[in-house]
Write a structure and sequence with these properties.
Elements: H1 3-12, H2 19-29, H3 34-41, H4 45-53, H5 60-69, H6 74-79, E1 90-91, E2 96-100, H7 104-108, E3 125-128, E4 136-140, E5 158-163, E6 173-177, E7 184-192, E8 195-199, E9 208-210, E10 215-225
Antiparallel strand pairs: 1-2, 2-3, 4-5, 5-10, 6-7, 6-10, 7-8, 8-9
Helix pairs in contact: 2-4, 3-4
Length: 232
């Protein structure tokens, strides 16, 4: 199991126990011995024992076979989430996670660690299966600084998903707050030796040199462009 994904899910939902504990409980509920279950899914009883003790975890075809044998979903076995009884913040099978769409002001006020549970009043949420290192959020691009004449271009009206926990490296696209001001900016993070800059993709916008007073709020990992307006 991806520990980073599990950490994000555990903040959104109450996840009881481990995969091994759920496997053991489901096996006993079906009144199967380890040898019985091993025979059904065609592995050794030692493998079943290792899964239940947490020494290893099933994946791929073994996970699917277990879900059929124990009459549960693969995601239910792995994460212990009943998708019929929770809001669809995590979609079964794809393991997409919903992230809130924030205004620039809301994004500028985020605190570390990010508490998504405190953002439940946000009306608009988008799903993603992007590999975030922590929790995340979306914002809407509202100026043409990242609209490029050639190559990668991120125009006005694009939603950008940011990883709140990822460390920015040279070339990343970031959402930054300059010198503890209330305003934020979406630019490319560029380093040149010991110097750091925020670079627009639009050559008409100036290069911004930054120092330690600049706060990187999030690193962009995905974009989404909608051609219809959201219903209020």
């Amino acid at each position: 199991m991806d520990s980073k994904k599990r950490n994000v899910l555990s903040k959104r939902f109450k996840i009881d126990g481990t995969l091994g504990e759920r496997l053991l409980a489901l096996r006993k509920m079906r009144k199967l011995t380890q040898r019985d279950l091993a025979k059904i899914i065609r592995v050794s009883h030692v493998t079943i024992s290792q899964w239940e003790s947490g020494d290893s975890e099933p994946s791929g075809s073994n996970l699917i076979a277990l879900s059929f044998a124990l009459e549960c979903s693969p995601t239910g076995l792995m994460y212990g989430i009943d998708f019929d009884s929770v809001e669809a913040e995590v979609q079964p099978n794809t393991l997409c996670i919903r992230y809130p769409v924030l205004t620039s002001l809301q994004a500028s006020r985020l605190e570390d660690p990010l508490d998504v549970n405190a953002l439940k009043d946000i009306k608009l949420w988008f799903e993603s299966d992007a590999p975030l290192e922590g929790d995340g959020f979306w914002t809407l691009v509202d100026n043409d600084s990242m609209t490029a004449p050639v190559g990668i271009s991120i125009p006005v009206g694009t939603y950008v998903l940011y990883d709140f926990s990822r460390e920015a490296v040279n070339g990343d696209f970031v959402l930054a707050k300059l010198n503890k001001s209330a305003s934020i900016t979406f630019k490319q993070f560029v380093t040149d030796g010991e110097h750091k800059f925020l670079k627009a993709l639009n050559p008409a916008w100036p290069l911004i040199q930054i120092d330690d007073g600049c706060e990187i709020i999030g690193v962009a990992v995905e974009t989404k462009l909608r051609f219809v307006k959201n219903n209020d």
